[in-house]
Design brief:
By secondary structure, this protein is mainly alpha-helical. 62% of the residues lie in helices and 10% in strands. β1 and β2 form a beta hairpin.
Amino acid sequence: MGAAYVIAGRKVASQYLTLGTYSVVGLVAFLAIKRSKAKKPDPFTSSPPINASSVEEELFIKEFMKSVESEENKNAH
């Protein structure tokens, strides 16, 4: 059929080495693509962190943002 190589004391046909190589390369490419997609945050749902000096200030900022967003929604419709 084709060439055979001796690996770890066993004969391995070249077509099996080729299929194994393609499988490993495909798996690595798939995992790299999957990992890069998982790291990207959604720009429409994520918001920047609120760096408030107190809890009251953080609550005020959140309430203010809610009121601004509700006004924008009213004006958009």
